[in-house]
Design a protein that fits this description.
The complex is a heterodimer of chains A (363) and B (129). Chain A has helices at 15-25, 37-46, 63-70, 88-96, 110-171, 178-207, 217-228, 253-269, 327-337; strands spanning 7-11, 30-34, 51-55, 78-83, 102-105, 212-215, 238-245, 249-252, 279-286, 290-297, 341-347, 351-359. By secondary structure, chain A is α/β, with parallel strands linked by helices. The chains are: A alpha/beta (363), B alpha/beta (129). Chain A: Residues 150-362 form the Histidine kinase domain.
Chain lengths: 363, 129
């Protein structure tokens, strides 16, 4: 932020003051000058300044009156008053009414002005930083609030389902049907476990230290495939891969695993069972600088109105067997952490294509 | 003989629809349970029934994708009187969030918030059976 040029508005009815100021400082600062307070107000409406300098003695209104007038509408710039007459009354007004940060005596001294501007800018920057931090903090708090709300639901709901099944099983005299209930309990417990694993992934992704290593996409994909192919919901889906890796690609294998795992699992979960040949096709093209990953399926597809929302935390598109809505959020976060991008194109009933581009991370 | 009641279950969880349909029938409180895995679908069904809609009791889940329980209540509020008068709504949810509980209590259309898992005896008491 310190590299940014400091923008200054200087108002003085004496033209030669304006010009000598500009001549002295134009190389250091971004300076706008005007001899009219009316024009100064118009300029303020169209441009943001870090610092405003104003002469005290001007026709129409004094520097203090000008500051008092603009202070509420333009609170951000730091105000400095330039005055040739040290008058205690004006000084009190300047501080109390104009909330002036500093006085500069006329005739001004180059170093003195430079220091005043440097100090004023320091305050400006600190205030801006604080504002930014506050916005970030507010966002983090809102997210946390939403997280706790949704996570408590997703942790509790499967447990309450299990309790419901147990209550039902206890009413059952026919012992044979108990197995059916046990199967439901198994599924519900698995759902809970999946959610807990997701939360751990999310946490590792958000807080964990990234470990950058050489990536073998071939190995990574084989590994992910091994964990999913025996899932009961896998069905007769056909998974094909096309991996073209040229040279060394470096990245965080943990995050890549999260990405592959979630995207492929989604393709399995949202396959269109009414189609005779459900498939998911994974393409990886990697060079020493860049990797492109494409996951394409002919599954149920995503409604257009949902496509920009699916990466949000706990957003669940209305699909019947949708999960907690955290998977794609984690994918999005992981990709962002890797400095990459993800996009989706999908047609309902036809399928979805997720495209990811990530840069190689230099160690 | 007590009259048999018609139930609509609205829940995005296939598990819960299965469990509570069975539980309601086993308890003898009803022989007629219709299940909906989305609130929007249930609303469509109610509208399509029109005057032929029987008197029903809805057990409504809260957290659902697309249209949640409270959003369903908002839509319900816009239904014509002759439909609304045939419908009694209980919210059935695992929520322990005080904001949800307060909101459910404050709604004139929700008779009560029943915690999951459903206790049929508790529901019977609420229905004064």
């Amino acid at each position: 932020m310190s590299e940014k040029t400091i923008s200054i508005l200087y108002i003085d009815d004496e033209e030669h003051n304006l010009h000598s100021f500009k001549a002295s400082f134009r190389k250091q600062y971004d300076i706008t000058i005007t001899s009219s307070v009316v024009e100064a107000e118009q300029i303020l409406n169209s441009k943001d300044f870090c610092i405003i300098l104003a002469d005290q003695r001007m026709p129409i209104m004094t520097g203090v009156q000008f500051f008092e007038k603009i202070r509420l509408k333009h609170p951000k710039p730091i105000r400095i008053l330039i005055t040739g007459h040290t008058d205690i009354g004006a000084a009190i007004d300047a501080i109390n009414k104009g909330e002036v940060f500093r006085f500069i005596d006329k005739p001004w001294d180059y170093t003195y002005v430079e220091t005043a501007i440097a100090n004023a800018y320091e305050i400006y920057r600190t205030r801006e930083d604080l504002k930014l931090r506050n916005i970030e903090l507010q966002k983090a708090n809102e997210e946390l609030d939403k997280f706790v709300y949704s996570a408590s639901h997703d942790l509790r709901a499967p447990l309450m389902s299990v309790l419901g099944i147990v209550n039902l099983a206890l009413l059952e005299e026919d012992v044979k049907s108990q197995n059916e209930y046990l199967e439901l309990i198994r599924q519900s417990v698995k759902k809970l476990d999946t959610f807990i694993i997701n939360i751990i992934d999310y946490y590792k992704n958000a807080r964990g230290v990234p470990v950058v290593t050489d990536i073998s996409f071939e190995e990574l994909v084989t590994e992910v495939q091994a964990t999913i192919q025996y899932l009961p919901e896998y069905g007769n889906l056909k998974m094909t891969t096309d991996i073209d890796q040229a040279g060394i690609f470096q990245s965080d294998v943990m995050k890549l695993r999260i990405i592959f795992n979630n995207l492929i699992n989604n393709a399995i979960k949202f396959q269109d069972k009414s189609k005779p040949d459900p498939f998911v096709h994974l393409t990886v093209k990697s060079t020493p600088t860049q990797a492109q990953i494409i996951v394409a399926d002919n599954g149920s597809g995503i409604k257009e109105s949902d496509q920009d929302k699916i990466f949000k935390m706990f957003y669940r598109a209305g699909a019947t067997n949708s999960g907690s809505g955290i998977g794609l959020y984690i994918v999005h976060e992981a990709i962002a952490k890797l400095g990459g991008e993800i996009s989706v194109s999908s047609k309902i009933g036809q399928g979805s294509i997720f495209e990811i581009n990530i840069p190689s991370i230099a160690k | 003989m007590k009259p048999l009641l018609n139930f609509f279950l609205i829940d995005d969880s296939a598990f819960d629809l299965f469990i509570y349909e069975k539980l309601l029938i086993k308890s003898g409180i009803t022989e007629n349970v219709k299940t909906f895995n989305s609130a929007r679908e249930a609303l469509k069904h109610i509208l399509s029934q029109g005057t032929s809609l029987p008197e029903i009791i809805i057990l409504l889940d809260l957290q659902m994708p697309d249209m949640n329980g409270f959003e369903f209540i908002e839509e319900f509020d816009n239904l014509p009187d002759f439909l609304r008068s045939k419908i009694q709504i209980f919210m059935l949810s695992s929520t322990i969030d005080t904001r949800d509980i307060e909101k459910a209590k404050a709604s004139p259309h929700i008779i009560d918030l029943l915690p999951k898992p459903l206790e049929v005896n508790f529901l019977k008491k609420k229905l004064a059976l």
